[in-house]
Amino acid sequence: MSKEHLMNKRYDVESDLSRYWKQVGREAGREEGREEGREEGLARLARSVLLVLEARGLAVSEATRRRVLAVRDADALDELVRRAAVVTRAPALFAAGRAR
């Protein structure tokens, strides 16, 4: 074999253990990304509830605002969006007690 041939040859120097831990890191990163995306989605949905109330000209107290922003359940937030479209006062969002 010529020197040029040896110099151009690539060798796999990554060990199985190294490949394993890279994969573990990738999976952990994906899971973290999914969780961050979920949290961002919930926060955006909560802000949508407040935007609907404000667009309808309803006064939103700081206590109601905090309570809406604290909801971490997508189904409950969906229900709050529906209620925000029809309530006559912002505190009535929680009147039935379904939002968590």
Our Rg estimate from Cα atoms comes to 26 Å
- The helix-and-strand class reads mainly alpha
List low-confidence stretches.
none
Domain count: the total is 1
Q: What is the total tally of β strands?
A: 0
Q: Mean of residue pLDDT? A: 85
Number of helices: 4
Q: Largest beta sheet, briefly?
A: none
Could you give the distance between the termini? 72 Å
Measured by DSSP, the beta-strand proportion falls in: under 5%
| Global shape | rod-shaped
Order of helices and strands: HHHH
Classify the helix fraction into a percent range. Answer: 55-70%
Q: How would you describe this structure to a colleague?
A:
By secondary structure, the protein is an all-alpha fold. It has one domain. It is built from four helices and no strands. The model has no long low-confidence stretch (mean pLDDT 85).
Ordered list of secondary-structure elements with their pairings:
Layout: H1 3-8, H2 16-55, H3 62-70, H4 74-84
Keywords, please?
mainly alpha; 4 helices; 100 residues
In summary, what is this structure?
Helices cover 66% and strands 0% of the residues. The protein is mainly alpha-helical and 100 residues long. The mean pLDDT is 85.
